[in-house]
Design goal:
The complex is a heterodimer of chains A (825) and B (62).
Chain A lengths: L21 E5 L2 E5 L2 H12 L4 H5 L22 H4 L9 E9 L4 H12 L4 E7 L4 E7 L5 H10 L3 E4 L4 H35 L8 H19 L1 H12 L6 H21 L6 H34 L4 E6 L2 E6 L8 E4 L8 E6 L2 E4 L1 H4 L5 E3 L4 E2 L4 E2 L4 E7 L5 H14 L3 H31 L1 H14 L2 H21 L2 E3 L2 H8 L3 E5 H5 L5 E7 L2 E4 L9 H14 L5 H12 L9 E7 L3 E6 L2 E6 L1 H6 L17 E8 L2 E9 L6 H10 L3 E5 L4 H10 L4 E3 L7 H10 L4 E5 L5 H6 L2 E5 L12 E3 L6 H35 L5 H29 L1
Parallel strand pairs in A: 17-25, 17-27, 25-26, 27-28, 28-29
Antiparallel strand pairs in A: 1-2, 3-5, 3-6, 4-5, 7-8, 7-9, 9-15, 10-13, 10-15, 11-12, 11-14, 16-29, 18-19, 18-24, 20-21, 21-22, 22-23, 23-24
Helix pairs in contact in A: 6-7, 6-10, 7-9, 7-10, 8-9, 9-10, 9-14, 10-15, 10-26, 13-14, 13-15, 14-25, 14-26, 15-25, 15-26, 16-25, 18-19, 25-26
Chain B lengths: L2 H25 L6 H7 L22
The chains are: A alpha+beta (825), B mainly alpha (62).
Chain lengths: 825, 62
């Protein structure tokens, strides 16, 4: 991703496909771009003197083209809207922005420098972990929409967001944990040298009592402050008759504390203040690490939700008013302009338009909506203005319910985790019983030994090692995966992924770039190639292509976009053509009347079903491997065939090879004709091709594979594969930005890199192995140490050293999972 | 060895001061973005605020 890499787009590094290449004079030289968006962003960066950005981006890294800027940024200039996000009492304002498109540290540099150069911006600071921007600016000198537009020029989409109560609460909890950890660490460090002094001989000397009291001074606040949550947790568990991990920790800590206090007061015996404090420190450390990893996994999905529309235009007594979504009520009348996202569920009262609901349903084709028909929040309005009566807002909308499902999935636990959770109460109960038994047995012989041995048992049985075994491994795995562009939404997905036997890839947009282009046209007079220099389109072909473009303008299908783009580039786009009676059938084709002629474009079977005769004389494109063939029918008969090619993703072959090497079956699922799919499968190393599957049949195909005993992972681009992703054992979606249809996948590859698929698989297998190791480790440890402790062969000191070691062994073993992806990079 | 009576409170105070600094650092959000701050320190370019030459077309609205 730098000037040195000639093969890809100068700005984003994506491979360039021939027909879409953009050449632009930027920074004193001609550079190649994959799209106009990248070229514009690059020009803006050079204009602002920020070309240092390109030296700072990591070499070879690829990030997608700039995201689309949210429309109608003027929304955010209104005080009514702004007050939702921050304090607006003065002109000096501060706000948090959710930013889409931040990729690496170079983006941080670009945004901070690009904004700091704007007169009126007093602070712009990016949080790379959360992909957020804290912005302070002078509202009297600069308007927010201007800043957002500037961010758009630099290649980032940003909207203000309101850190919800849940997120603030999470942050506060994490910070409180950090404070407690810091305090316990301080006490542990200081107690350590006191202990050394005591063991080195001070135990016999004049300072013995002083050191004991210093230990007390340090241990008491540590127990109360740092250990507080464990007591609260233990008490809560007791009240609900549920033995959890906090209980033995609390009892062990309390007994150690009381025993040491008695020793300090009476002056006989050994104190265990250091044991107590180290014990608390290690457990807190484990919990903090777990919280950190979890936060990272959650914040990535949270970003998607932040980019939802925040304001709506309401019609009241014929007057337009802009209101925040929160102020909307069922029964309000909304005005939804072309190109806007629908802010709430409702029924159309007036107007017709085509709505893109892919955000929810995964279906890319826009749906026509007119009076009396429902619209759903989050869908994108097409060309018409609509008046909509609100029926549901916020969490009651379909979108809201989907988001809730995502949140629930994140809170859900893997089966292996719930197994561990079920075992813990028994484990705790056994620990308490053993400790009681030990003290009873020894009480006859010597009460002091009884207390010590029972304490040793409580401390040494390390439920924390056991309890940490699964969540620690999961947390490290999900956290390290999230950092490398693999978003695991559900712990259970890792478990299922670890024993997958077959990986099914969707073809268009997943194995291929999803940006097809017209390469050739066949008609009665022969073949016309798009990329051959000197060939010109004659009038007839121009006539056809202009009409095709006019018709396909109404479709969002990648093939349709390729055809309209082609027409625009060749100056064939004709806005005056009248298009009526359009019918779209996903996976088959499109038919409509253009300028009085009936035009159909789609598969051979689709044309025949419309009663159009196929032209047998047209050459079949046997010498065109891997292309998609569209038949063009005009007024009842086929006149031409269009050949479109979609290039393979650069890393498709390596990803497939890695999966085959890992002993998995790999197949390709496509709606395309068999010849095209087979050709592509051959180029990918001879994988199985399942072709000519209609969108609605993909899920059934996956179910069929599963019924035959395969455990299937489906990889799709998250737009039209939603049902298939759900029916697979594990659904893996390529993250295409703000698409919430990713809700249907268990794993989202945020960087759109296929190479992450085998990595995710390796990670899952490694995680499950680690979990088993961890559980084995903690069980083995307990089997050895508990009998020794019960026999009073282990003093609480040894117990205190051994216990954190067992936890640390589990934590350390889990941490090794993180190295897997680092090596893979 | 009387010095120990002075050293102990001294060491505790020093330790508490360190804890205080850490609390302050956490409160001011320095642990919120470890990834970004780790990278930021490597970017040696100075930010020049309010320099219109760096931002052509900056139309100040008032």
């Amino acid at each position: 991703m730098s000037a040195s890499q000639a093969s890809g787009c100068f700005h984003c590094g994506l491979p360039i496909t021939q027909p879409t290449t953009v050449r632009a004079q930027v920074g004193g030289g001609e550079r190649l771009f994959c799209c106009q968006g990248c070229a514009a962003v690059c020009r803006a960066i050079y204009d602002a003197g920020l070309e240092g950005f390109y030296q700072r981006t990591p070499d070879g890294d690829i990030f997608g083209p700039p995201p689309e800027l949210p429309r109608q940024l003027e929304f955010y200039d209104l005080d009514e809207v702004q007050q939702e996000f921050g304090d607006i009492s003065s002109d000096e304002r501060e706000m948090q922005l959710a930013v889409e498109g931040i990729h690496c540290a170079a983006c941080v540099w670009l945004i901070e420098n690009g904004l700091a150069a704007m007169p009126g911006v007093s602070e712009a600071r990016v949080n790379l972990t959360g992909r957020r921007l804290r912005l302070r600016w002078d509202n009297s000198r600069l308007r927010l929409s201007r800043i957002l537009r500037r961010l758009g020029e630099l290649g980032y989409a940003a909207v203000p967001f309101d850190p919800g109560a849940a997120e603030l609460g999470l942050q506060r909890r994490n910070r409180a944990l950090l404070y407690r950890l810091a305090f316990a660490g301080f006490a542990a460090m200081n107690l350590m040298w006191i202990s050394i002094a005591l063991y080195a001989g001070a135990d016999q000397g004049e300072f013995r009592s002083l050191f004991h009291w210093v230990g007390w001074l340090l241990a008491t606040p540590t127990l109360l402050y740092a250990g507080g949550p464990f007591f609260v947790g233990a008490w809560r568990g007791l009240r609900h008759w549920h033995l959890d991990m906090d209980l033995p920790i609390a009892i062990g800590a309390a007994i150690t504390y009381c025993y040491s206090l008695v020793v300090t007061l009476s002056g006989r015996g050994d104190v265990y203040w250091d044991t107590l404090v180290n014990f608390l420190f290690v457990i807190l450390l484990g919990r903090y690490l777990e919280a950190m990893s979890r936060r990272q996994a959650v914040s990535a999905t949270q970003r998607l939700l932040d980019l939802q529309p925040r304001a709506a235009t309401v019609l009241r007594d014929g007057e337009e008013a802009l209101v925040p979504i929160r102020a909307l009520r069922p029964g309000d009348l909304l005005l939804i302009r072309p190109g806007e996202r629908v802010p709430a569920d409702g029924l159309v009262e007036q107007g017709t338009s085509a709505l893109d609901e892919s955000l929810l349903t995964g279906e890319a084709e826009p749906l026509a909506r007119g009076p009396g028909q429902p619209v759903v929040a989050g869908s994108l309005n097409g060309a018409g203005a609509l008046r909509v009566r609100v029926t549901a807002v916020l969490r009651q909308t379909q979108l809201g319910r989907i988001l809730q499902l995502v949140e629930e999935a994140q809170a859900s636990k893997a089966p292996i985790q719930s197994l561990a959770d079920q075992v813990v109460p028994w484990f705790v109960g056994a620990t308490l019983a053993l400790a009681l038994l030990t003290s009873l047995i020894w009480w006859q012989a010597d009460p002091a030994t009884a207390v010590l041995a029972a304490t040793s048992v409580l401390i040494i049985t390390c439920p924390c090692a056991f309890g940490l075994a699964t969540p620690m491994a999961m947390a490290v795995a999900t956290g390290s995966a999230a950092r490398h562009g693999i978003l695991i939404k559900q712990g259970g997905a890792l478990e299922r992924l670890s024993n997958v036997t077959q990986v099914v890839f969707d073809k268009t947009g997943t194995l291929t770039l999803g940006r097809p282009s017209l390469v050739a046209l066949i008609d009665a007079r022969g073949l016309w190639r798009a990329n051959e220099p000197g060939t010109r389109l004659d009038a007839t072909r121009q006539h056809w292509l202009a009409r095709v473009a006019a018709l396909e303008q109404l479709s969002e299908h990648p093939l349709a976009r390729a055809l309209t783009a082609f027409a625009r580039e060749h100056g064939l786009a004709d806005m005056t053509l009248e298009v009526t009676d359009v019918r779209l059938e996903p996976g088959r084709g499109i038919v409509g009347r253009v300028d009085g002629q009936t035009l159909a474009l789609g598969s051979a079977a689709w044309l025949e079903s419309l009663g159009m005769a196929l032209d047998k004389r047209l050459a079949s494109p046997t010498d065109w491997p891997g292309v998609t063939l569209l038949h063009l029918g005009l007024d009842g008969r086929e006149v031409a065939r269009l050949l479109l090619r979609d290039d393979l993703r650069e890393d498709a072959r390596t990803a497939v090879d890695a999966l085959i090497a890992a002993g998995l079956q790999v197949s390709l699922l496509s709606g395309d004709r068999q010849a095209t799919a087979s050709e592509m499968a051959k180029r990918l190393g001879g994988i199985t091709a399942i072709a000519e599957v209609l969108p609605e049949g993909k899920a059934a195909e996956i179910s069929r594979l599963r019924a035959s005993g395969q455990r299937v992972a489906m990889v799709g681009d998250g737009v039209n594969d939603a049902p298939a992703l759900v029916s697979a054992d594990v659904g893996i979606a390529l993250g295409s930005g703000t698409d919430v249809s990713m809700a249907s996948a268990d794993i989202v590859l945020t960087g759109n890199e296929l190479a992450r698929v085998p990595q995710a698989l390796a990670l899952a297998q490694r995680t499950l192995v680690t979990i088993r190791q961890n559980i084995g480790l903690s069980i083995a440890y307990n089997l050895v140490m508990v009998p020794l402790a019960m026999a009073a062969l282990i003093t609480p000191l040894v117990a205190a050293i051994a216990m954190p070691l067992s936890s640390l062994a589990v934590v350390g073993n889990s941490a090794r999972i993180g190295g897997l992806l680092k090596k893979a990079r | 060895m009387e010095v120990i009576y002075g050293l102990i409170p001294g060491m505790l105070l020093l330790g508490l001061a360190a804890v205080g600094v850490l609390f302050w650092a956490a409160r001011s959000g320095q642990f919120d973005d470890l990834e970004g701050d780790g990278q930021r320190i490597l970017m040696d370019d100075d930010i020049k605020p309010d320099d219109p030459r760096r931002f052509p077309g900056a139309d100040v609205e008032d």
